[in-house]
């Protein structure tokens, strides 16, 4: 049986602003300067049109090494920058990880899965990145929210102060279209989970204990109404073992395949065939609306009628993924790991 949609509180707050990594990312995606960005970022933001896109992309790529050395993922091998949208992609190596939990729709027990290597975005896609996609393709801006009137965008733009927040009010189809434009894809549920929890079966990206101070959630902002999401560089203390940010909190994130309640039960038995087609899609990670720690567990799978692929909700965003080349351990299908 599907679990009920988690109780939500519509409260949030803004805390610290961006650090260097996303200042550079926003510089490569936006066309207007922001006063809190550094001089290099502001210079790139001052360029407009195709000139600005080329300058921003060049800045992001040229600065990749310095960003890696400054960020929380420092020292991790295999971080690359996607030229099309400036997403920083972290290599998750081939190998086993502990998936699932005792919950019925999470397999009815943990199990080991062997996954090929893949890349996953260090951050969810931001408003600044999504604007580049909208301007390049004419795709519908995310200026309408289903089930609420809380859209962040107005017309084809958004307030400058949320440029480095995750884009919301994007359907699964919107997210898939962005990924296709960027030459990327959405992660599978198993990929998303491995990127969140590493290989040791931890419950949360940071460990086994729920800690509301490590991610954006309604407990953190209960008495500070008016804002929902936060910068993707906030809560660095909530990163997982691969250095990937916001795998718990801020926004729920679309995964690639159709929702199937019994999928993890099949996976636990070694059947990794794709789920049957369904209008619903699983979302993972919890969001700024939730306050129950269970929602933020790495293995928590959530899907119901509100998460149909066409819905645009103010607490759902996405991040991108990419196949790794065979030389780095990519290729092949999931399979059960050792006992």
Care to describe what's here?
This protein has 339 residues and is of the alpha+beta class. The chain has one domain: paralog of FGE (formylglycine-generating enzyme). The chain has helices at 20-29, 39-46, 49-62, 64-70, 127-137, 172-182, 189-197, 263-268, and strands at 80-81, 88-92, 95-99, 111-115, 118-121, 252-258, 281-284, 316-317, 321-323, 335-336. The strands form 3 sheets. Strands 1-2-5-9 form a 4-stranded antiparallel sheet. A hairpin with a 6-residue loop joins β1 and β2 (88-92). α1 (20-29) runs parallel beside α2 and α1 runs parallel beside α5. The longest helix has 14 residues, at 49-62. The radius of gyration is 19 Å and the shape is globular. The two termini are 29 Å apart.
Number of domains: 1
Count every beta strand, where a strand is a DSSP E run of 2 or more residues.
10
Give the end-to-end Cα distance, rounded to a whole number of Å: 29 Å
Secondary-structure element series = HHHHEEEEEHHHEHEEEE
Provide the CATH architecture: Alpha-Beta Complex
Strand content: 5-15%
Structural class: alpha+beta
Query: Treating each run of at least 4 consecutive H or I residues as one helix, how many helices?
Result: 8
Strand order of the largest sheet: 1-2-5-9
The best one-word shape is globular
Major β-sheet annotation: 4 strands, antiparallel
Q: Which stretches are poorly predicted, pLDDT < 50 over at least 5 residues?
A: 1-75
- Superfamily (CATH H level) name: paralog of FGE (formylglycine-generating enzyme)
């Amino acid at each position: 049986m599907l679990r009920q949609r988690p109780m939500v509180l519509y409260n949030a707050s803004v805390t610290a602003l961006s650090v260097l990594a996303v200042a550079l990312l926003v510089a490569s995606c936006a066309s207007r300067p922001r006063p809190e960005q550094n001089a290099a970022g502001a210079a790139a933001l001052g360029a407009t049109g195709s000139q600005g896109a080329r300058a921003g992309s060049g800045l992001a790529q040229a600065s990749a090494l310095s960003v890696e050395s400054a960020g929380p993922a420092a020292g991790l091998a295999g971080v690359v920058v996607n030229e099309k949208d400036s997403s920083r992609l972290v290599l998750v190596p081939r190998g086993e990880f502990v998936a699932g939990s005792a919950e019925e729709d999470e397999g009815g027990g943990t199990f080991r899965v062997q996954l090929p290597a893949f890349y996953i975005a260090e951050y969810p896609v931001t408003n600044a990145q999504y604007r580049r996609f909208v301007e390049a393709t004419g795709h519908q801006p995310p200026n309408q929210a289903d089930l609420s009137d809380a859209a962040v965008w107005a017309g084809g733009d958004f307030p400058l102060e949320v440029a480095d927040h995750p884009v919301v009010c994007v359907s699964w189809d919107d997210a898939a279209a962005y990924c296709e434009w960027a030459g990327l894809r959405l992660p599978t549920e198993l990929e998303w989970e491995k990127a969140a929890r590493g290989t040791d079966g931890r419950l949360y990206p940071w460990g086994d204990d729920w800690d509301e101070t490590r991610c954006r959630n309604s407990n953190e902002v209960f008495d500070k109404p008016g804002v929902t999401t936060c910068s993707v560089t906030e809560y660095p203390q909530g990163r997982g073992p691969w250095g990937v940010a916001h795998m718990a909190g801020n926004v729920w994130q679309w995964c690639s395949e159709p929702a199937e309640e019994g999928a993890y039960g099949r996976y636990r038995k070694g059947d990794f065939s794709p789920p049957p087609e369904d209008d619903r899609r699983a979302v993972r990670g919890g969001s700024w609306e939730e306050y129950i720690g269970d929602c933020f567990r790495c293995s928590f799978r959530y899907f119901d009628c509100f998460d149909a692929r066409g819905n645009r909700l103010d607490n759902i965003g996405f991040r991108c993924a990419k196949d790794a080349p065979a030389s780095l351990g990519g290729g092949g299908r999931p399979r059960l790991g050792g006992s």
